[in-house]
Amino acid sequence: MGFTRRAFLQQLGAALAAWGVSESGLWMMGDRYRQVLAAPTPRKLALLVGINQYPGGTVLEGCVTDVELQRELLTHRFGFQSTDIITLTDQQATQAAVETAFMEHLIQQARSGDVVVFHFSGFGSILPAQSAAETEQPSLVMADAPIPGGEVPIVGDMLRDTLGLLLRSLKTDQVTTILDTSYTYPGNPLQGNLRIRSHHNPSTAQPTDVELSLQTQLLSRLNLNRQSAAQPFDQLPGVILAATDEEQWATEANWNRFSAGLFTYALTQSLWQSTPATSVQISLGQVAEQVRQRVNQQHPQLRGQKSKALAIAPYFSTTSVGAEGTVISVDETGKTVQLWLGGLPAPLLEQYGIHSLFKLLPVADSQTTANSALETAQLQITAREGLTAKATVCCTNAATSAEEGMPLIQVGQLVQETVRVLPRNIGLTVALDGSLERIERVDAISAFSALPHISSAIAGEQPADYLFSKVPTKQTQLASLSSASLSVQSSYGLFSLGRDVILNTTGEGGEAVKVAVRRLVPKLQTLLAAKLLNLTVNQDTSQLKVRATLEMLAPQERLLRQRETMRTLPASAQPTPVSVPTADLLQVPMGSRIRYRVENQNPQPIYTLLLVLDSANNLVSLHTPTSPLNSELESEQPAAAIAPQTTVTLPIAAAGADWTLQGPPGLAAAYLICSVAPFAQSLAALATGTQSANATSTVMPISNPLEVAQAILDDLHRDSQATSPVSAPDAFVLDVNTWTTLHFVYQVG
After folding, report:
1. What's the 3-state SS for 207-259?
2. What does each C-alpha distance from 58 to 49, 196, 248 come to in angstroms?
3. Phi/psi zone of residue 122: left (φ > 0), alpha (ψ -120 to 50 degrees), beta?
4. Taking the domains of the chain in order of start, what are their residue ranges?
5. Is the dihedral of CA 234, 237, 243, 247 positive or negative?
């Protein structure tokens, strides 16, 4: 899709004329638009832009994947027709092509009440002010090469002000704009093991005449002056979902056989799990949790005129039940399918094993015989590559409808997880930072290779869990370090993938690499244990009926967060209000007293563990079930169990003791693990690992975290054997009917 400047200007004039006459009431964003939200949307339109390949050899790796993630989500979860979605990738995504597609596909076609989505993944940048009276302008970098021959470089960027004018030109306010990009360039394309989505423009760079002409015509049609063009995001129509704050960097990551924007993957994965009760604030809060665990200096943003409205559904569209993916192709036998698994968290997808099972959800307009034949059928994974998997029908003899001869399985059918299979040999990968000298890298590779369950990789080239790098003496305790600040080296430590220092991992100045690696062994085991616990999180897929509420007792009493197993709720159920939904990470002040209220809504007892990776990156136990629980109802169940239809509070405070957050500032993650059977091996491992703990203390430090995490997986595997049809001796087989792990992430500060 290519355009000359002349052709673009001709189409621009035609497009503006087509919609400019009848828009006198476009900007009246009052009660009549609130009424539109409740009305059926006659049409859903999307323009998705993703650019990996830029002129001059500058590349990103995950932007085209972002477009694919959005397209599959919009098509299979939000009811967009494939013909109403335009995608422009790499060389297709020139300034002329993107702006023309916006006008012709979105502005000309969208009517009041329609739903519009615009997504951009690629480089962002800054263009200098054109005069003393103006300010520098953020821009979206398109695939155009700079125009040669002038005294100053002319770049084909789309100015963010232009995007704002295009959005204001829409006839609908039900518009969602997703920007997985950033504008400030840090001087290095890598931040730890993550790639930065910002590009440096020359200090004299100027936008094209075509871009300025488009702005002038849009301003004229909207009856605005040029000062009105630079409106903040909060005043633009609909909602703006931005990957990060203005002065921060958007990043993308490598996973096994694919790359994607951290923000886009977390957003689309969260929305695969959306239900009618899901709001855009709830979704973005979940996204912030995922992103901040990998890079603490990337804060997703929710902006736009409708960002404060609590009842806004993601993409202004309702969904039914959540799903982990969809069928994207069926072979001629009807027994083998290709699945899209974008609804699984990326760290879990990396470890997702063959033999895992999914059930098919019935298609609303399918024949009854076909749907009933699928009630017992499941799909078993036989191979997986990146985001797609090959699966075959199992657990039933039916393959096609006897009456019609049609395949029972249809493209577009949603799938839900029933059995999770994980390898037993899961390890931790540590990326070696580019700031290390060659001899340091050689020593580090040798040292890490000698450790069980630990491997190394080169930063920016392979997927990894953490980063190993040098630490300046004066900054060993800083929460985050930029590449530019690492010029004075003295010791070594571990960092998050986004180069945030992992507390308590820095050593003394002058230590050798191999000495540093040996020193880090206990912390590496703790981080691997946390990785294993993360792989058990299944609040979106579990069939156990459990609800947990995080409460603050002091300095004030209030409810902080609630988690529950969403798949056990009726489709029309609304969650119990806990607090005003927030699009940011939960903040809990140091010194706060907090607890968890756990409700067992099952007809049978459940058994629980409560483990926390605290802000100092130590794994601690807050509930080891060796004493009666603090039940609000009388119970005749064993001390370690929560009786049916019973609520308890955790942790159990010993006499005169309470759970108070001591700090230091940083991220903390809690894992409430519930099972239908006792944690026999886990309790034995915990008994060994907490022997040195104060018997009256609420917080029990665990000295053998990896052993405990492996024992938990063994217990969950054992408990699944009675119900799971899967046999995989070399793997953990986990049936979603037998356990749930509810996950709480918060910032201590």
Report:
1. ECHHHHHHHHHHHHHHCCCHHHHCCCHHHCCCEEEECCCCCCCCEEEEECCEE
2. 17, 12, 20
3. left
4. 5-18+47-316, 325-420, 428-524, 535-570+577-748
5. negative
Alpha-carbon distances, residue 240 vs 232, 448, 573 (angstroms): 11, 43, 28
Stated as kind and residue range, the H or E segment containing 610 is: strand 606-613
Beta carbons within 8 Å of 301's beta carbon, 6+ residues apart: 233, 240, 241, 242, 243, 244, 245, 583
CATH number for region 325-420: 2.40.10
SS3 329: strand
CA angle 723, 389, 117 (to 5 degrees): 110
What is the pLDDT, as a whole number, of residue 635? 42
To the nearest 10°, report the CA torsion of 688, 716, 351, 583.
-90
Closest CA to 654 of 614, 682, 694: 694
- Fold for 5-18+47-316, please state it: Rossmann fold (3.40.50)
pLDDT at 19: 41
Confidence grade of residue 13 (pLDDT, cut at 50, 70, 90): low
Q: Which two tokens stand for residue 618?
A: 């130590």
pTM for the whole structure: 0.89
Q: Give the number of other CB atoms < 10 A from CB of residue 82.
A: 8
Beta strands in 319-441 (DSSP E): 325-330, 336-340, 357-360, 378-385, 388-394, 414-423, 428-432
Tokens of 577: 């209000």
Calpha distance 575→548 (Å, rounded): 12
Average pLDDT of the segment spanning 559-570: 88
Structure tokens at 392: 């075959």
Closest CA to 620 of 522, 686, 553, 550: 686
Q: d(Cα 652, Cα 668) in Å, to the nearest integer?
A: 20
